[in-house]
Amino acid sequence: MKTMLTFTSLAVVGMLAAAPARAQQTTNIVDTAVAAGSFTTLAKALTAADLVATLKGPGPFTVFAPTDEAFAKLPAGTLDNLLKPENKDKLRRILTYHVVAGEVRAADVVKLQSAKAVSGDAITVKVRDGKVHVDDANVTKTDIQASNGVIHVIDTVILPKGI
Fold first, then answer.
1. Is 152 exposed, middle or buried (0-12, 13-18, 19+ CB in 10 A)?
2. pLDDT of 141-156, one tens digit each?
3. Phi and psi at residue 21, in whole multiples of 5°?
4. What is the CATH number of domain 27-154?
5. Paired residues of 144 in beta bridges
6. Rounded Cα gap, residues 155 and 64, in angstroms
7. 94 near 159, Cβ under 8 Å?
């Protein structure tokens, strides 16, 4: 019994000592999104636009991340067209329109009327019926923490004016 108690105590001490290390090993925005499993189209687009290294960088960033279902709402052929090398600049502008410099948590997003995207465009932010909307997208999940920022999930791909 004494051996069992000692072993259990050591195991608990070992888990507690390792807990802070695990908490600090949060993955970056790209790896966090990929691990979630519902952002494969976003990951593919980030790769085509050469933005993966940027969003794996130090940040901090706030990303309004459209799900695979959000990309599926685009008109037929739109995504395939955007993924072509000759449309890389347009794709980069669209994707950077989903990114805000700095870490903006949900509690702060609800206080905004707009946010300046990395693309240079302004994203409209509204709260209606207790729900946050960025442009025409609904924010469906908030404050997914990454080592270099935060992700807010949206249900629609948002587009800067003129695209």
1. buried
2. 999 999 999 999 999 9
3. -65, -40
4. 2.30.180.10
5. 151
6. 10
7. yes
